[in-house]
Amino acid sequence: MKWLSKHQKTIVYSLSLIFAMLFVYAAVSKLLDFNTFQNQLAQSPLLSAYAGITSLMVPVSEIIIAALLCTKRFRLWGFYAFFTLMVMFTTYIFIILNFSSFTPCSCGGVLEKLGWTEHLIFNIVFILLAGFAIFLLAQNIGVPPKKIFFVLSVLTVLGIAVVTLMFLTSEKEMKRNNAFIRRYMPHPIEKLGEYDLGYNSYYIAGMDDQSIYLGNVTAPFLIKSVAHNLKDSQDHPVTIDSTEMLFKRVRIAVHPPYFYVGDGTVPVIFRGKVEDWNATTYSYDEAYFTSFVVADSTRTGFTIVSSKTGTKALALLHKAQGRDTVLLNTGILKNVLDGRFDTDGMLLWNNEHRQFIYPYYYRNRYEVIDGLLSKVFTGKTIDTINTPQIDVTYYETKDVYKRGKSVMVNRQASTYGDYLYIHSDRLGKYDSEKPLVSASIIDVYDITDNSYAFSFYLYHQPGKKLREFRVYKEFLVALVDDRLWLYKLKPKYFNPKNEKQ
Q: Is the pLDDT of residue 376 over 60?
């Protein structure tokens, strides 16, 4: 105790300098690379909604606290502030490690090489040192130990409460924010390989456990199968039992053991087996359609243009006991503007939940519909455009409407298991344009609770745009220009469920 009393001032002064240097270095590091620091906060599951104000307050607070610590008159206040801020930092790390859905990248600076657990230990040590310094300095000026302990207890509770409140309110605040904020998952997909197709006219027709099936708009009756090893491929000529029809935009959907051939300008669907690639008429003269998606061997969903309203609508072809039944629902797709383009979107089928999903192209909405074409709910994406921004011109002499420059919110989409995957090239509040030179943004939504889960970058060759992608079990396949990319979803983040096709 004598030694402690003798060196009390030296210990307090030394600790104040150490704390001040730590905070000055931390603040300068953040300010020198401010954009990176702000982006890291924006990706945090705790602070996404408050990244803007927090990214400014933290370094400013650190500089002010450092100045207080270096001023003898205000040193005790500096220690109290240092103690409180370190409690808040520690609470943040504790919540990240124990209650967060994922662990974001740590901040840079002197602690960049430390893991989150090591960072937690580091903070606790400095909290204890700060408490020790406060007791020494406060006792030196005659403050009773009980009062010191009470003040430290209040500051501890206050620091924990503030960070906890931010954690509980951040998710709601993100959804209310006028400029949407993405939360990026660190490396949730693993590249398995790429395959040079030679042409950019291919589209994804289907996928199974062994192969990826590709159609070709310039060779409409040819299917290319590419094995998952991306080394073996084979071309399969497709034959149908009627060649007299004038097809304009043939599309093939492969759902092993069957494949389907459709062309909405001709009201016909052909079906055959992939073992021989010969198709016969499956449905004829039931409906003209703009797109179709196969649900199972008895049901096929269509997007159509209603003859009554002139707007997009959904239809379902149900084959049972030798009878074809067509169900029409014109009330699901809601138009906001004129209804000619603002209801455009993509019709998907989620086999596990037995639901159709329809993301709109030009607004932040998607419809979830059951297998009998009844609406389940309308989901909302993180984008802020709920009224389509479409430039439409009417040509009276030709009696046609043409779409001009428009803002496309959801470009492509796919669904599997509990998730809806949407590709959007619209930048969020803290998104940088730099990664988009060689990557595309995929936003992930949980359709079981109608919530935004996270986002990730899908990397591909630079200077090219993602044309299409598809998720099947643990695989994600993407077409970028004339190249096919295959990725594996890490179960830690996605936990895709196996389902029977």
A: yes
Go through the domains of the chain in sequence order and give each one's CATH number.
Answer: 2-176 (1.20.1440), 189-239+248-489 (2.120.10.30)
Rounded CA-CA distance 137/74 in Å is 11
Q: Which pLDDT score is estimated for 110?
A: 53
Residue in the structure block whose two tokens are 């179960």: 491
pLDDT (average), residues 446-456: 93
Reference 212, options 188, 247, 236; nearest CA is 236
Quote the pLDDT of residue 451: 92
SS3 string of 434-464?
A: HHHHCEEEEEEEECCCCEEEEEEEEECCCCC
Check whether 396 has a pLDDT greater than 50.
no
Question: Closest Cα to residue 183, out of 270, 252, 292, 101?
Answer: 101
Distance of CA 5 to the CA centre of its chain: 58
Q: Is the pLDDT of residue 105 over 60?
A: no
pLDDT for position 395: 42
Q: What are phi and psi of 67, to 5 degrees?
A: -65, -40
Contact indicator for 466, 485 with CB cutoff of 8 Å: no
Q: Quick check: 480 and 494 in contact, CB under 8 A?
A: no
List Cβ neighbours of 446 (8 Å cut-off, separation of 6 or more). Answer: 418, 419, 452, 453
Taking CA atoms, 435 is separated from 32, 98, 410, 478, in Å, by 21, 30, 19, 17
Q: Between the CA of residue 303 and those of 245, 265, 316, 378, what are the distances in Å? A: 21, 12, 9, 17
- Which of 122-126, 128-132, 476-480: highest mean pLDDT? 476-480
Q: Do 263 and 248 touch, CB atoms closer than 8 A? A: yes
